[in-house]
Amino acid sequence: MEQGSAREGARPAYAPGAIPYAPGSARVPEGRLPGNRVPEQARGRQGEEEQARGEHTHGEPPAPRTVRRHSVRGQILDALRAALVDGQLVPGQVYSAPALGARFGVSATPVREAMQRLAVEGAVEVVPNRGFRVTERGPRELAELAEVRALIEVPVMLGLARTVPAQRWSVLRPLAEATVAAAAVGDRAAYAESDRAFHRAVLTLSGNEQLVTIADELHRRSQWPLVAGPATRRAELLADAAEHTALLDALIAQDLTVVQALVREHFTGADG
């Protein structure tokens, strides 16, 4: 279910203008649209409410909102993560925030902030006065990640298989089908996200939020490409996705023997 290399024919992850950059723009206050008159009694209250919300009156353009900037940073972070999985960001290569910002059509600031987050996650490392180098990973690191994930997830999944009723597993069917849909078109970035979403949903049934957070972080790290790794073929993605649906079928049927075999195979197989 995991991947460690870039797929062939990956779509460009950062064509110019791919991520909209819209700094805070003026907004027409409520009730001020053409043709709408605000009653005199309401105007005073409205002015007070607008001031409480930090909005400008008298036609003054509002200041850029911080949430807008964070929204752009979040979009850039998602796009960079997808580019990592797709292999658009090559292990060992150094990328500058201004250059990536130009490709995305944004300033260097949200790119730099997103890259700092990726550095905390271990996906890139800071290169002073140059930018960020994509971390180089080998098969040993991928195997170690798979081993740690197995130690965490296998016993939890087996415990859930014994206690969670069939109808609760049925709710996860769309998540399993989403991995198949992404695999069918060879979209590695979409597959990586849907793969993690399925695992998060399963582990969430344990009620242990810390476990879910730690397992998801390990899962994300296992999806970064290997150095000079082979491209993952669509058939391999489909085979991995089929494990999700097979596992879910076994959980719904409460077939513990099949569940145990599938879960252990998942983490001991070639793709973890």
TrEMBL record:
Domain HTH gntR-type: 70-137
PANTHER family linked to this entry: GNTR FAMILY REGULATORY PROTEIN, TRANSCRIPTIONAL REGULATOR, GNTR FAMILY
Residue ranges, compositional bias (Low complexity): 11-26
Compositionally biased residues, Basic and acidic residues: 40-59
InterPro entries given in the database record: GntR_C, TF_FadR/GntR_C, Tscrpt_reg_HTH_GntR, WH-like_DNA-bd_sf, WH_DNA-bd_sf
Record-linked CDD domains: WHTH_GntR
Keywords for the protein's UniProt record, in alphabetical order: DNA-binding, Transcription, Transcription regulation
Chain segments carrying region Disordered: 1-70
Protein name (Swiss-Prot/TrEMBL): Transcriptional regulator, GntR family
Pfam families in UniProt: FCD (PF07729), GntR (PF00392)
Signal peptide bounds: none
